[in-house]
Amino acid sequence: MERTKVGLSNEEVMHYKQKYGLNELFKKEDTGILKKFIDVLKEPMLLLLLCTTIIYFMLGEFQEGIVMLIFVLFVCSITFFQQWKTDRTMNALKNLVSPEIQVLRDAKKIIIKSSELVPNDIIYISQGERIPADCEVVEVSNLYVDEAILTGESEPAYKQCKKQCNGIDDYWKEYMLYAGTLVVSGTCVAIVRKIGTSTEYGKIGKSIYEAKEEDTPLQKKVGNLVKILAVIGAVLCIAVISLSYINTQNLIKSILSGITLAMAIIPEEFPVVLAVFLSMGAFRLAKKNVIMRKISAVETLGSTTVLCVDKTGTITENKMKVSKVFYNKKLFDDVNYLSKELSMVSILACQRDSTDPLEKAIIEVAKKNIAVYELENLEICKKFDFNSNTKRMANVYIMDDNYYISAKGSPEAIIRLCKFNKEELGEIKREVDFFASKGLRVIALADGTSEKLFEELEDYTLSFKGIYGLQDAPREGVLEAIKSCNTAGIRVVMITGDYYKTAVAIGEEIGLKFSNSSITGEEIDHMTDVELMNAVKECDIFSRVIPEHKMRIIKALRDNGEIVAMTGDGVNDAPALKKADIGIAMGGRGTEVAKEAADMILLDDNFTTIVDSVRDGRRIFDNIRKAMIYIFIIHIPIITLALFSPVFALPQILLPMHIMLLELIIDPTCSIIFEIEPEEPYIMNQPPRSPKEPLLTQGMVKKVLMQGTTLFLAAFLPFHYLVDSGVTVEYARSFSLTTLIVGNIILVLVNSSNTKPITEVLLDNRNKSRILINIISVVVLICIIYMPMLQSLFKTSSLALKTFTEALVLGGISTGWWEIVKLFHRIRKL
Ligand code: ADP
Ligand code: MG
Prior knowledge:
The chain is α+β, with helices and mostly antiparallel strands and 830 residues long. It has an eight-stranded mixed sheet with strand order 8-22-21-20-9-17-19-18, sandwiched between helices. The N and C termini lie far apart (78 Å). The structure holds adenosine-5'-diphosphate and magnesium ion. Adenosine-5'-diphosphate binds next to helix 12, helix 14, strand 13, strand 14 and strand 15. Magnesium ion binds next to loops.
């Protein structure tokens, strides 16, 4: 049988794959292990650790030196692990969005990853797709391809089969499709000729699919903060070294206390927390059918103020059902019995083997009244494809030596093609309005004959046949999702190509705020930018719009200062998706181009999933804040302790060992525990966060200072007191370490939730890692205070049980007192 009818067989595919490899247009950059290792070693924390190790060895304190080396290895492996995990998560996400293509193999049409294509594969390409390999056109209908990416030519190139080409031998062939170029309109069947780096595009060797990953605004803010802290740290360090040298005259010891301070100050947790929270957030969203193409979108999501969504398929199910028909001046509520004539026109006005839900619904009804097989053999000699600008389509057939045209589309579009008297027109318009006021999608039908084949649909004279009213119910949960948007201060704007009455009826059903009016595409055309800016303030429904209008709507909303998320699926939606703060492409019906332009892909095309992801975005941001606040608080005592000892000429409370130990507790605490914290009840009850809002608000800064200071006092004052009263430094230090570590555990519990009391947090055992890390820190604390071997290393000594209990209580109170503030807030809210 002919190759184009069966495609390649399994064996052939295997054979070609072995011979030519994968269809990858560019070589992925592979960062070697060595480079990653050097990157990790460049971390300032590790450099400091290495310095300390060297100093200990110079001082002849080998035991300490070796422990420090172990710490170095530990920190290295943690960093490695974290990076590996983030990389893996990101790669998994990228794989989920890798482009796919329909191929013919073993006589079956299947969908495979474009990278699996081999030469001689037969592929099906349609509007909105990127060509996956260099191919030759076999069958073609109206195919225009944007080849600017290769040729620089901005006009789309028209494609035809080889035998129709006029033999001009250009470098860029009319019968060839080139990898990386974009199908603007039409469909075709093609045979793959060259794949991977042998394609014209592959020779250039750049990636088109990859969205360039820039730092998110938050990452930039935090980056700056880290720089500022580093400078402060360096200045303080030098000050401490000089001070201590004046006090002790011992240079190496002074350097050591300087390094201790530096280790305490380096805010290495901040970037880690951001990278981990954002990538894990994206990963969790992927499990809920939302794929983040840009990590920064995770962050922006939470501050979205307006959601602009398509109606059909996003708010509604996109499962159409014919519910009313108007034909021959009569209204039919029972659509099972329609005339043969209308049924025939309906079927002929649809695509063959249609997958469009609207056409499937119409055909289903028509089939009940007419034998379809008679119509299936008719030859289509011209197609006018549907697009959202013209809102109509038609097929031209050869019938009885004449041409027969069957058309359908929006009533306005079809009426324009027909001739009426005033009375007829009035009646039709009344019916259309009646259908639409019931929330039905309205389609008009017309047909006609012609002796000539015209290029434009307008040149045919058609006669009006009838109208269909199709029901497309809102998806389950949309009403609730919109309510939750309202309490969260997010406006939902519905954008649709449908008739305004249909849109308004649906808008009312789902509870849009301004659901009694709609602005139509035509009205937008007559508005200036400023008028539109005012209009969008009080309108939630835009009807009969074409993709170009979306662009203006977004611009107007953004000029009003809104943060806009917008959905889209078609080729023409790409500019609007790019312009929106968050472009959301549909995973199901979206074109490749829309997906490339989007920040986020919605796999299930469902509106409620968007609202869920906004909630997740807010939760992620809230947790990032919690983690940041925690990091700030816990560093206050550590830094001040490292700073005060030399300043007040006290013996050093915290040695590099202790700081390392604390960091090993702090690190997983902030990057794991807070990441999985469940959402707070207020998350969707407050207005969106302004992107201009600082990382920490004034209230948060106060909280940081208060909690940090009390924890510091609880560790510092007893130490001061104990040393003055004559006990050994080791004993006093054990006391301080106990208050610090216990204070830290309580701090995590207190700050895990801003609303729930600590008792509820303790009983909620969903966050397993919190329980684990807290238990480990208690065990570690007991070990370093009571195990002789560790005592000599950590310069501690056994505390009497009474003293130990005192330290426990003091530590608990030092951070636990914040519960009173929380209680006060709760009472005030009642
Ligand atoms: P949306 O998807 O936003 O509802 P569309 O651009 O898909 O908007 O559709 C706009 C209008 O075009 C519909 O109200 C309907 O009248 C008409 N229409 C939609 N699909 C078809 C089709 N397959 N054939 C003919 N007309 C259609
Ligand atoms: Mg549509």
